Amino acid sequence: MDAASRPAVVIDNGTGYTKMGFSGNVEPSFIIPTVVAVNDSFLNQSRSSNKANWLAQYSAGVMADLDFFIGEDALARSRSSSTYNLSYPIHEGQVENWDTMERFWQQCIFNYLRCDPEDHYFLLTESPLTAPESREYTGEIMFETFNVPGLYIAVQPVLALAAGYTTSKCEMTGVVVDVGDGATHVVPVAEGYVIGNSIKSIPISGKDVTLFIQQLMKVLSLLFF
């Protein structure tokens, strides 16, 4: 059975949370924080040795023994042990640490989705205004490390607009206000394509609103209680 006959893997990496699953499903299979907890000793290994270690352990069926964790497991591990450092690979919608991002994808594929990347096409997402070099790094990791047979990288607001359309792609036109945990963008889309020079970035995101409300509640509690 080739990759075309299997559902594609969909991974939507955001600053705060990552949604992942398979095409055809109504909802994501997993929604986890985009964070990695890595043991200090594991950080000293080279990227090439990590790759060989991942593939060898995956073939042996012992991927859970790798000494780094993602999502809620990472947060719990950092609270219980001081030897683990938390790393957030995405900041304001852009990948800043590619080694950590590679580890994160590895755990998503093998430990959460439990699939062989060579047997599925992949759909990944990126934030508006992402540099072309970032897409090149993503393709390099997916093709060279995970040996995926096919990859498509979509802009997140375009997918959000497409989710509300039942007509053809050529009629998909609108303006998307994408408010994420780390970034907010206003993105015009014409016939399925982003008008790049008209994208507006707003320096207020979901995290900022959450912190503001928390501070406001603290002030109110001091005034009334």
Structural class estimated from helices and strands: alpha+beta
Tell how many strands the DSSP assignment holds: 14
H and E order: EEEEHEHEEEHEHEHEEEEH
Radius of gyration: 19 Å
**How much helical structure, as a percent, in the residues?**
25-40%
Low-confidence segments: 58-65
CATH topology of the domain at 3-155: Nucleotidyltransferase, domain 5
Strand order of the largest sheet: 3-2-1-9-10
Average pLDDT: 84
Strand content: 25-35%
Termini separation (Å)?
A: 65 Å
CATH architecture of the domain at 3-155: 2-Layer Sandwich
Shape: globular
CATH class of the domain at 3-155: Alpha Beta
Tell me the CATH superfamily of the domain at 3-155: ATPase, nucleotide binding domain
**Count of helix runs:** 6
Report the major sheet.
Answer: 5 strands, mixed
Organism: Platanthera zijinensis
Protein name: Actin-related protein 3
Family: Belongs to the actin family.
Quick structural summary:
The chain has six helices and 14 strands.
Tell me what the structure shows.
Belongs to the actin family. This is Actin-related protein 3. The protein is α+β, with helices and mostly antiparallel strands and 225 residues long. The chain has a domain at 3-155: Nucleotidyltransferase, domain 5. It has six helices and 14 strands. The protein has helices spanning 47-60, 71-80, 98-112, 132-145, 156-162, 206-224, and strands spanning 9-13, 17-22, 30-33, 36-39, 68-70, 84-87, 90-91, 94-95, 122-126, 151-155, 174-179, 184-190, 193-194, 200-202. The strands form four sheets. Strands 3-2-1-9-10 form a five-stranded mixed sheet. Strands 11, 12, 13 and 14 form a four-stranded antiparallel sheet that branches. A three-stranded antiparallel sheet has the order 5-4-6, with helices on both faces. Strand 1 (9-13) and strand 2 form a beta hairpin. The protein is globular. It starts with 8 loop residues before the first strand and ends with a helix. The model is unreliable at 58-65 (pLDDT under 50).
